[in-house]
Amino acid sequence: MSASAYKYVYGVVHASAVAPPREGIHGSTIELITFGPTAAIVSDLEERDIDAGRNDLMVHAEVLQDALEGGAVLPMRFGVVMADAEAVKRELLERYQDALLSQLAELDGKVEVRLRAVLEEAAVIGEVVEEHPEIADLRDALRGSDQDASYYERIRLGEMVAAAVARKCEAEGQEITLALEPFALAVDANTAGHERMALNASFLIERARVADFEEAVDEIGRVRAGRLRLKYAGPLPAYSFAALPAAP
Amino acid sequence: MATGSVQKGGAASALYDILDLILDKGLVVDVFARVSLVGIELVTIDVRVVIASVDTYLRFAEATNRLDLQAPRGGGPLSGLTGALSGATGQLTEATEGVTGKAGELAGAAKGK
Predict the structure, then answer these.
(1) Which pLDDT belongs to residue B92?
(2) Once rounded to an integer, what is the mean pLDDT over residues B18-45?
(3) Which of A6, A33, A78, B5 could pair covalently with A221 via S-S, beta carbons 3.0-4.6 A apart?
(4) Measured between alpha carbons, how far is A180 from A145 in angstroms, rounded to an integer?
(5) Tens digit of pLDDT for each residue in A127-176?
(6) From the CA of A17, how many Å to the nearest CA of chain B?
């Protein structure tokens, strides 16, 4: 490690942790910079301004995944580069020491699980038409009409459907969250990625409860098979639950 | 383990599934430089933004029609055919959903060379 090189920072761990034995971004060696009770996982960068691509994103995620296997880790957002080893010590580890330590303690033994739920189009639109006579009526009225002449009416129909689908997404999302909340310590709900996404959330879970959580997700999938598709990613480092306070 | 409609990435999740976590969440300090991303911007925009457009409305309107053909009261040989057709359309939609991720991977792969 060169003390004067730019440092790409992956995350923060306890000083007793071991550096993940793998290559870092741009083929560099992963190392720890320790200051007191905490350490930063870093690798050298030859220049401050590098272009990063898919491989670098993967490396960032994999280094943190490895670190998580070794114990508590606070993941940095992708792309943090500091001036040199001294800057990592002073501007990160020393300056935020109290916050880093308390978050490491808080997140120890916990992981993030990411869950997305998407309503199946055919199923959800079937329900919408069945439950809303005004939608079924407009649909029937437009049947066989001239495509150009009915353009605005078709948009109006689509808007009504979209609004009803959005309400279904919201209700479904709430229901899933309610069912899973008992297994989680915290939930971070994000904006949906598209118009049939009912849930896009991260759950903070005790490692020991991950199997129970997964079982509960499986059950939701079983009950809603054909109506809902679930995407489960985890266990992950607690990206959504780690944050630094405003500069102390 | 993976049952019914649950698709699992486990710890080795596809990058696409955790892309927004890596880019939007996690610690930042105020004294730092950030590397520039090549070919990723497009993906993240697609991941983050929901556009309820006229296209969406027209597609939904069209979908209500497909639906009716799919489940006629009597259910003759024709209904089986249209059912299969709308099933194929469904698969197309799924494929389209995957395209965003693929586009990102391609852009990333181009950079990785």
Answers:
(1) 38
(2) 72
(3) B5
(4) 46
(5) 999 999 999 999 999 988 888 889 999 999 999 999 999 999 999 999 99
(6) 19
CB B5 within 8 A of CB A54: no
pLDDT at B2 exceeding the cut of 70: no
Euclidean distance between CA atoms A42 and B2, whole angstroms: 35
Task: Tell me the average pLDDT of chain A.
Answer: 93
CA distance A195 to A13: 39
Using CA coordinates, name the residue in chain A closest to B68. A126
- At residue A245, what are phi and psi to the nearest 5 degrees? -70, 170
Using a CB-CB cut-off of 8 Å, the residues of chain A touching B50 are 191-195
Full DSSP string of A99-117: HHHHHHHHHTTEEEEEEEE
A 10 A CB-CB count for A243 gives: 12
Residue B7 in 3-state DSSP?
strand
Instruction: Say which amino acid occupies B90.
Output: G
d(CA B27, CA A95): 14
Positive or negative CA dihedral for A149, A151, A152, A153? positive
Chain segment B60-79, per-residue pLDDT in tens: 898 888 875 554 433 333 33
Three-state DSSP at A30 gives strand
CA of B8 vs chain A CAs: smallest distance (Å):
5
Reported pTM: 0.80
- Report the residue count for chain B: 113
A103 to chain B: closest CA residue: B27
Q: How many whole angstroms separate alpha carbon A57 and alpha carbon A243?
A: 20
Q: Tokens 């580890």 appear where?
A: A93
